[in-house]
Protein: Xanthine dehydrogenase molybdopterin binding subunit
Organism: Rhizobium vallis
Amino acid sequence: MDKSTFEDRKAIIAGPMHGSQRHDSAHKHVTGTADYIDDIPEPAGLLHGALGLADRAHAEILSIDLSAVAAYPGVVWVFTGKNVPGVNDVSSNGSHDEPLLAETLVQFHGQPIFAVIAETRDAARRAARLAKIEYRDLPHWSDIDGALANGSPLVITPMTLHRGEPETEMPNAAMRLRGQMRIGGQEHFYLEGHIAVAIPGEDDEVTVWSSTQHPSEIQHIVGHVLDIPSNAVTVNVRRMGGGFGGKETQGNQFAALAAIAAKKLGRAIKFRPDRDEDMSATGKRHDFLVDYEVGFDAEGRIHAVDATYAARCGFSSDLSGPVTDRALFHADSSYFYPHVHLQSKPLKTHTVSNTAFRGFGGPQGMLGAERVIEEIAYALGKDPLDIRKLNFYGQPGSGRTLTPYHQEVEDNIIARVVEELEETAEYRARRNAIIAFNRDSRYIRKGIALTPVKFGISFTMTAFNQAGALVHIYQDGSIHLNHGGTEMGQGLYTKVAQVLADSFQVDIDRVKITATTTAKVPNTSATAASSGSDLNGMAAYDAARQIKERLVAFAAEKWNVPPSDVVFLPNRVRVGESEIPFPDFIKQAYFARVQLSAAGFYKTPKIHWDRKAGRGTPFYYFAYGAACTEVSIDTLTGEYLIDRTDILHDVGRSLNPAIDLGQVEGAFVQGMGWLTTEELWWDDKGRLRTHAPSTYKIPLASDRPKIFNVRLAEWSENTEATIGRSKAVGEPPFMLAISVLEALSMAVASVADYKVCPRLDAPATPERVLMAVERMKRV
């Protein structure tokens, strides 16, 4: 092989796909030139919408007087649920339990009852406050305890996972313990709130710009409320200013309201709620109450687990079924349970319906499992890391590979990830030093924890594991890419463009990334479940494959060479002994009437799930990771600092290491916020009081670990045939933040000489840390 051929092959191997390309919009984000929906030039005659919200948690609506609202200067139209042309429902799962506008019954404080359309946003908002509504109050409960005490119904049929004989084997365990853990919810707090613009078209047509992770669902819902077919609705999304799951279903109501008004009035309509309304009227991460019992031996090896995961779901089902299901799927964390019984309890409450949030129930399930490990460690006086390692899933053939849902863990690398991080983070030496420090320190106590992550990748609804992509090559060799995934800042557009550039061996700036639209790729799945790159990358690859096959056949015939002699090289194509610049090659193919467009498609193989039986293979593969965190707490105030975090995370063979590192860092900090400072609080009237930045505390840049070392497991490669042998990175690293809570727990436990588990609930606010310290002083 000569040197030039060797260099060419190196380029093919490296390619654009696995390089650290910058995010396609990074420069626009930092300069303020990235266009979001509120930046689009406003159409002539644009009107603005505002919501009229209920001020009761649970009540019958006796009468509604909107005369003062309609009379307010600038108001064009006021409408209620009775004015919905189609069905007054925006439920995402076909349950018909989520009215667009409440008509006779209010089920949470802040529920939309009517909408105001006015010449200005200010006029619409001011007018919305003038409504006179009479209610008959009904009993309400806004938390899990209230739901349980009042025998609350479930919003959806619960799921049960069962394997082995936990009923008979639990009593046979050498040691047993029971406990309970409270896990708080979380507000998405995206930088760009919900927004929708609807523009009426001819006949029954309407175009909607929506900040959504699920354009096809918006299309379906708009058609549903207008009583028109989906082919009359076009939904566009160029980018979102953050999503995190909060824009999977919660954009439905704003898009539907805008579309109804647009078709009624024949004018463009914009709905953009302010932050308070957004936080009051849209769903959040589910909070959980976990009751657990574990049987184990004197070494700390788990024998049996029985746990119930009760969740505050809100007034309707929304995505609570799959969220609570995934909590059970991850209630094993990284550990093998020989005998296990797990049950979900999705409770109805008189609060806004909770919804998808990064991790989708997995973090809550995993957190419960780590509490079980912690309980065992303190009961036996051992290092929790030793208990973790003792209970890890084993390798194939070990008899310790079967999950509670009867899927084999075939790609297990958790032991290697943890052992590597344990060594590089110097965990043992630092833990010993911390124990010595705590022995001599009066007020400041330290803690350290190393926790694992094993997260299943795929939608648990099998049908959602599909994607499409549309690829065009123009005569000048430039490439147009459109796919069903949405960009919310995570770099999906860049990664899929890298796949395409790699396929044709062209520079990535030759690929134009265009807005996601239902007019080009139909029936898309939500950009969720960490599957965006897996699904859309493979769909784009399939489209490129089709075009390349045509181009190879064309070249082989034209130049009379075997197909194997047609090779795509960086920005050129080798045909036999000749090399042709890519644009010239494409132009020749065009004049030979070669089709230069293709619709690609991909569906995830191997997966299946039987929810009723609690058996199947819901996940295509698992992503792994580990984090080691050190903290310091002030035992007089409960305040704390995150001193250091070391992370080793598995993304398979990274499509873009720079973007993946950013995803890991961001997910960790967001998870840290969930477990420490972010607290949702409803008062006794069912009002959300943490509805603004003044009352809801997300992490600041200064809250990040003072030392923050993040590495990707460069040796990892997905054993499944994913795009580029990569792994998902959106959700799995969120759970690395569990190491923060566990480290805080160790610091608190030092007050009682590590004799008992502190049972620190989440979020571990300074107040909760201080109360836990005071409990330890009484031990």
